[in-house]
Amino acid sequence: MGQELTLHGEVARFDAGFTEVAPGTWAYMQPNGGLGESNAGLIFEGEHVMFVDSLWDNMLTGKMLEDARGIVDAAPETLFNTHSDGDHVWGNQLFTGARIISTTTAKNLMTLDPPKSLRAMQLGGNLIGAIGRVPLPFIGRRDYGNLPRLPLTHMGNEMAPFDWSDINLTLPQETFDDAMTIEVGSRRVELIEVGPAHTMGDAVAWVPDARVCFAADVLFIGGTPIMWAGPIASWIAALEKISSLGAEKFVPGHGPVCTQNEVDLVRDYFEWVTAEGISQLDRGIAPAKAARKLLLSREFENLPWASWDDPARLVVTLSTEQFRRNGGAGQLGGAARSRVITLMQLASTALGRKRAKAA
Ligand SMILES: [Zn+2]
Q1: How far is the CA of 33 from the centre of ligand 1 (A)?
Q2: 159 in helix, strand or coil?
Q3: According to the model, what pLDDT value does residue 124 have?
Q4: Rounded Cα–Cα distance for residues 219 and 134 (Å)
Q5: What would you report as the CA-atom Rg of the chain, rounded to the nearest whole angstrom?
Q6: 302 Cα–ligand 1 center, Å
Q7: Helix (H) or strand (E) holding 114
Q8: 137 CA distance to ligand 1 centroid (A)?
Q9: Helices H, strands E: what count in the chain?
Q10: How far is it, in rounded angstroms, from Cα 157 to Cα 9?
Q11: Alpha-carbon dihedral sign for residues 60, 125, 306, 12
Q12: Is the CATH number of domain 17-109+166-258 3.80.10.10?
């Protein structure tokens, strides 16, 4: 039997598709939880069906809805978007007839990064990637030093598995602030706003009868968290909030289903970023430089999160922290956002080289 591959072509570290977390409470998994490999949730009783998040495109979301019919053959009544990122929202249009709900802040953010702009970036990345593959005689033997072409090629590859050509951005019709209760038949689902953390409008779904928390992108498991809103203290507060629910299982936005132990480890990571990263910002060191210093240090290799995917996301997290310290309102956006992504790719290139050398 062949090994299952992820959307990005890596060997899957956990099973894809629906997995039952508790009775009538399922997680839809996309290993390994990398870019766009987001999870979703299915909560039902009888004919009453609620989803937590759609996926990044219509093909992926359509497949999820089809698989769901094998578990409960009824149309979704409710769709809850945990936050504004496309990989949790852009498949919304396939939930025809469902009430779609998010926090007010998340809904406002959904229009900021429309599918059109990311599609342009995807096409640009593909083009640059294609140029990179042209045989040497055509481009000469110039040494580009891998800068800055490689990061863009990398982004093109990262976006290649997704198809945004037919996205009709479908926004929630209902919004809430702070908290809201949803009824799924006689079951109760609590929507709880916990942001700003990963984004400005983060919320989670808590299912008390199943003791399951759909924590979305407040939790990255097996991959490094990426902070677009923060500050870090606020993300730690969000982790405290979900830790106080009494959940037996957590479904992260990216990565495998987990328990409180893994939530504690994410918290430890942010405590480490605070101690080692923010302390450098305090000394006037630039975020990207501070992050690279930490990631390339010998000590880093012995930390529990050294094995997490995409360690270079720390560049984004520290850049966001600095942005907030400088009085920046809301989350990193526009040109600042793409500049930071480029820096992150440069850092991951450096890290890749270091690891290749060490191997
Ligand atoms: Zn996500």
Answers
A1: 8
A2: helix
A3: 66
A4: 40
A5: 20
A6: 27
A7: none
A8: 41
A9: 11, 12
A10: 11
A11: positive
A12: no
Q: Which residue has the tokens 């609620």?
A: 50
Report whether 37 contacts 11 (CB < 8 A).
no
Query: How many angstroms separate the alpha carbon of residue 254 from the centre of ligand 1?
Result: 6
Q: How far is the CA of 230 from the centre of ligand 1 (A)?
A: 15
- Pairing of β 78-80 and β 99-103: parallel
Distance from the alpha carbon of residue 6 to the mean position of ligand 1, in angstroms:
16
Q: What is the DSSP pairing of strand 174-176 with strand 99-103?
A: parallel
Q: What is the DSSP letter of 4?
A: P
Helix axes 314-325, 287-295, angle to 10 degrees: 150
Cα of 216 to ligand 1 centre, how many Å? 7
What pLDDT is stored for residue 144 in this prediction? 38
For residue 32, say if its preceding peptide bond is cis, omega within 30 degrees of 0. yes
Alpha carbon of 225 to ligand 1 centroid (Å):
10
- Tokens 């779904």 locate to 205
Query: Within a 13 Å sphere around the CA of 180, how many CA atoms are in the beta-carbon half?
Result: 17
A 10 A CB-CB count for 39 gives 29
Q: What are the φ and ψ backbone dihedral angles of 236, each rounded to 5 degrees? A: -60, -40
59 CA distance to ligand 1 centroid (A)?
17
SS3 121: helix
Report the alpha-carbon distance of residue 279 to residue 334 in Å, rounded. Answer: 27
Domain boundaries, the chain: 17-109+166-258, 115-159, 268-358
- Between the alpha carbon of residue 174 and those of residues 79, 80, 127, the distances in Å are 10, 10, 39
Q: Report the separation in Å between the CA atom of 253 and the middle of ligand 1, taken as the mean of its atom positions.
A: 6
Centroid of ligand 1 to alpha carbon of 262 (angstroms): 18
3-class secondary structure, 19: strand
Q: Chain centroid to CA 58: how far?
A: 18
Cα of 173 to ligand 1 centre, how many Å? 21
List average pLDDT for each run of 10 residues in the chain, which is 359 residues long: 82 97 98 95 98 97 98 98 96 98 96 80 61 39 39 67 93 98 98 96 98 98 94 98 98 98 98 97 94 92 94 93 89 77 75 70
Q: ω into residue 148 within 30 of 0, thus cis?
A: yes
Structure tokens at 182: 């949803």
